[in-house]
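Data's thin. Show one?
=====
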Amino acid sequence: MIRKFVKSMTLITDEKEEQPTEIFIVAPSVIKQIFYRELLMSEMNEYTELNPMIYHSLEELPDECLYFTHRIVYCDYTVYQCGFDTENTRVIPISLNRKYEHLNTTWSVVSNKKHL
Protein backbone atom coordinates (compact mmCIF):
# COMPACT_ATOMS: atom_id res chain seq x y z
CA MET A 1 0.00 0.00 0.00
CA ILE A 2 2.80 2.42 0.90
CA ARG A 3 4.71 1.47 -2.24
CA LYS A 4 1.64 2.23 -4.37
CA PHE A 5 1.20 5.63 -2.69
CA VAL A 6 4.86 6.58 -3.20
CA LYS A 7 4.71 5.53 -6.84
CA SER A 8 1.57 7.61 -7.49
CA MET A 9 3.10 10.66 -5.77
CA THR A 10 6.23 10.31 -7.88
CA LEU A 11 4.15 10.27 -11.05
CA ILE A 12 2.23 13.36 -9.97
CA THR A 13 5.37 15.35 -9.15
CA ASP A 14 7.04 14.25 -12.39
CA GLU A 15 4.09 15.59 -14.38
CA LYS A 16 4.31 18.96 -12.65
CA GLU A 17 8.03 19.36 -13.32
CA GLU A 18 8.65 22.34 -15.54
CA GLN A 19 9.74 21.73 -19.08
CA PRO A 20 12.51 23.88 -20.51
CA THR A 21 11.57 26.51 -23.04
CA GLU A 22 13.18 26.56 -26.46
CA ILE A 23 13.42 29.91 -28.22
CA PHE A 24 13.19 30.18 -32.01
CA ILE A 25 13.85 33.28 -34.11
CA VAL A 26 12.13 33.92 -37.43
CA ALA A 27 13.34 36.93 -39.42
CA PRO A 28 13.63 37.75 -43.13
CA SER A 29 17.34 38.64 -43.06
CA VAL A 30 20.45 37.23 -41.44
CA ILE A 31 21.27 40.64 -39.97
CA LYS A 32 17.96 40.76 -38.08
CA GLN A 33 18.49 37.15 -37.00
CA ILE A 34 21.88 38.00 -35.50
CA PHE A 35 20.57 41.14 -33.83
CA TYR A 36 17.63 39.34 -32.19
CA ARG A 37 19.87 36.41 -31.24
CA GLU A 38 22.37 38.67 -29.44
CA LEU A 39 19.55 40.46 -27.66
CA LEU A 40 17.99 37.20 -26.49
CA MET A 41 21.26 35.63 -25.38
CA SER A 42 21.80 38.48 -22.92
CA GLU A 43 18.43 37.71 -21.26
CA MET A 44 18.46 33.91 -21.21
CA ASN A 45 18.48 31.76 -18.07
CA GLU A 46 18.95 28.07 -17.31
CA TYR A 47 15.36 27.27 -18.30
CA THR A 48 15.71 28.50 -21.87
CA GLU A 49 17.60 27.27 -24.88
CA LEU A 50 18.10 29.21 -28.10
CA ASN A 51 17.61 27.13 -31.23
CA PRO A 52 20.71 27.58 -33.45
CA MET A 53 18.91 27.31 -36.80
CA ILE A 54 18.02 30.26 -39.03
CA TYR A 55 14.37 30.47 -40.08
CA HIS A 56 13.06 33.00 -42.61
CA SER A 57 9.36 32.10 -42.31
CA LEU A 58 7.05 30.39 -39.83
CA GLU A 59 6.48 27.55 -42.30
CA GLU A 60 10.17 26.59 -41.99
CA LEU A 61 9.86 25.79 -38.27
CA PRO A 62 10.12 22.10 -37.41
CA ASP A 63 6.94 20.32 -36.38
CA GLU A 64 6.33 20.80 -32.67
CA CYS A 65 5.66 17.09 -32.14
CA LEU A 66 9.44 16.60 -32.60
CA TYR A 67 10.05 18.66 -29.44
CA PHE A 68 9.24 17.90 -25.83
CA THR A 69 9.72 21.50 -24.73
CA HIS A 70 7.56 24.57 -24.71
CA ARG A 71 8.47 26.82 -27.63
CA ILE A 72 8.54 30.58 -27.91
CA VAL A 73 8.96 31.89 -31.43
CA TYR A 74 10.07 35.49 -31.86
CA CYS A 75 8.89 36.40 -35.33
CA ASP A 76 9.76 39.63 -37.10
CA TYR A 77 6.64 41.63 -37.99
CA THR A 78 7.50 41.51 -41.69
CA VAL A 79 7.03 37.72 -41.83
CA TYR A 80 4.51 37.25 -38.98
CA GLN A 81 1.30 35.31 -39.69
CA CYS A 82 -1.61 34.61 -37.34
CA GLY A 83 -2.65 31.06 -36.57
CA PHE A 84 0.67 29.42 -35.68
CA ASP A 85 0.13 29.48 -31.90
CA THR A 86 -0.58 26.12 -30.27
CA GLU A 87 -0.69 24.71 -26.76
CA ASN A 88 3.12 24.29 -26.73
CA THR A 89 4.15 27.04 -29.15
CA ARG A 90 3.70 30.75 -28.60
CA VAL A 91 4.48 33.05 -31.54
CA ILE A 92 5.37 36.61 -30.58
CA PRO A 93 5.69 39.30 -33.25
CA ILE A 94 8.72 41.51 -32.69
CA SER A 95 10.20 44.53 -34.42
CA LEU A 96 13.49 46.37 -34.18
CA ASN A 97 11.67 49.51 -33.02
CA ARG A 98 9.83 47.80 -30.12
CA LYS A 99 12.22 44.95 -29.32
CA TYR A 100 12.63 45.66 -25.60
CA GLU A 101 8.90 45.98 -25.00
CA HIS A 102 8.26 42.53 -26.52
CA LEU A 103 11.19 40.90 -24.74
CA ASN A 104 10.28 42.30 -21.32
CA THR A 105 6.72 41.03 -21.62
CA THR A 106 7.78 37.54 -22.65
CA TRP A 107 10.66 37.18 -20.18
CA SER A 108 8.39 38.12 -17.30
CA VAL A 109 6.00 35.32 -18.36
CA VAL A 110 8.85 32.77 -18.64
CA SER A 111 10.48 33.76 -15.34
CA ASN A 112 7.17 33.85 -13.44
CA LYS A 113 6.29 30.39 -14.75
CA LYS A 114 9.58 29.01 -13.47
CA HIS A 115 9.23 30.45 -9.97
CA LEU A 116 5.74 29.11 -9.30
Q: What stands out?
A: Helices lie at 2-16, 30-41, 99-115. The chain has three helices and four strands.
